[in-house]
Design brief:
Length: 389
């Protein structure tokens, strides 16, 4: 048996041993957290974030979903047959689930129910074409958050409809997400794998599937060291077990950095936007795991407590204007990470007391944030919530 395969199954066993009963609601936010935000909604940083969310088109109380029987997405969503509609509906469902808990207005909960039911009744052909696995992951990351909140707080959602959504996640999302770890996808840029792992974790929680949850945790522990570099890794970054790279291949896979510096991600020299996709999903899994009683933030196998803060500080410093050139391909960051790092900062700086000055400055410059794709409303949900008694 190859060493990488043996290690993967060892991590899977260790994660299974650490897990207990699945907690609900337990995807990214819990009700204690949302109750605290609601009680402090007229204080910053939540006040501005809440007002922005209320005014967003995703929060329209007359929102109408646009489900597709098959979602076909090529590279960069070309062709775009249902891709934009699915993500918009998923973002709307999560937005309105949050507003249901923060405002108490049942119209938001009804809209979440309507959106989820529409997709559960319509999507039968899964996610096809080259971006299918990533599209499925983005949709599942968000739909599951919305479903988890409303399932455990809204009596107006009948059990047969909940069961249909459970089957939707199991049949139309999970198999498509898993494709990110097979065939030609195994060595794609690793934001694919980060989002796939978050989707797997979230589906496992909602569907109460411990085996799927253990698999997601094991994959996360393998992904983090292969996505975020530390000097202790040696002269080159680590590989994920599903994507071995030779020394000659690794620089190209990391888009030719000037040098490997601590906190650099596999996609930093591609552009910061895609690095944000990967980092956000990695942090989101750690946060959801925390709600499940598993501390991945301090996970020793992946050295997450070193890697994640280093990555946030490096990318924040660069965008704050205080970091030397990172990449051979460009001088000055391409795009940005605006919209994320709130959740990671909330844990490491506010809960753990770690000094993260660059990340703090970066967040202060950009609050309140909306986000992109699967990272959404982080100021509203996690800004300063690490101070909850």
């Amino acid at each position: 048996m190859r060493k990488s395969v043996w290690l993967f199954w060892l991590l899977l066993f260790m994660s299974r041993a650490a897990q207990g009963e699945i907690a609900h609601p337990g995807i990214l936010v819990d009700f204690k957290q949302l109750r605290y935000i609601k009680e402090n909604i007229y204080r910053e940083p939540w006040k501005s974030a809440y007002e922005r969310a209320l005014q967003d088109p995703l929060a329209d109380k007359a929102y109408e979903p646009t489900p597709w029987a098959t979602v076909e997405c090529g590279s960069y969503s070309n062709p775009n047959n249902g891709c934009s509609d699915e993500i918009r509906d998923a973002r709307a469902a999560y937005t309105q689930a949050l507003l249901w808990r923060l405002s108490g207005d049942p119209r938001y909960a009804e809209n979440v129910r309507k959106i989820l039911n529409a997709w559960a009744e319509t999507l039968t052909g899964g996610h096809t074409n080259s971006n299918g696995p990533l599209q499925a992951a983005w949709g599942a990351e968000l739909f599951t958050r919305a479903a988890e909140i409303v399932k455990y707080s809204y009596d107006g959602w009948p059990q047969p409809e909940k069961d249909k959504v459970t089957r939707l996640f199991a049949r139309q999302y999970y198999p498509d997400v898993l494709r990110a770890f097979s065939g030609g996808y195994v060595c794609y840029n690793k934001n694919w794998h980060a989002s796939a792992i978050e989707a797997m974790f979230n589906i496992a929680v909602f569907n109460k599937n411990q085996i799927w949850l253990d698999d997601a945790v094991a994959k996360w522990r393998s992904l983090v060291p292969s996505y975020i570099y530390l000097s202790s890794d040696g002269a080159r970054p680590k590989d994920a077990p599903w994507c071995p790279r030779s020394n000659a291949q690794i620089n190209a896979h990391w888009s030719n950095p000037e040098t490997y510096v601590e906190g650099l991600t596999q996609e930093s020299c591609r552009d910061f936007e895609h690095a944000a996709y990967g980092l956000a999903a990695i942090i989101n899994v750690a946060q959801s795991a925390r709600l499940q009683g598993l501390d991945l933030y301090q996970d020793q196998i992946s050295q997450a407590a070193l890697r994640i803060p280093k990555a946030m500080e490096l990318h924040s410093a660069y965008q704050n204007g205080g970091q030397a050139k990172l990449c051979k391909a460009y001088d000055g960051y391409k795009n940005d990470t605006v919209g994320t790092f709130e959740i990671g900062f909330n844990h490491y700086a506010l809960r753990e007391g770690l000094s993260l000055p660059q990340t703090s400055l970066f967040l202060q410059k950009h609050r309140p944030v909306k986000g992109k794709f699967h990272y959404l409303w982080e100021t509203l949900t996690h800004g300063s919530t690490g101070l909850i008694p």
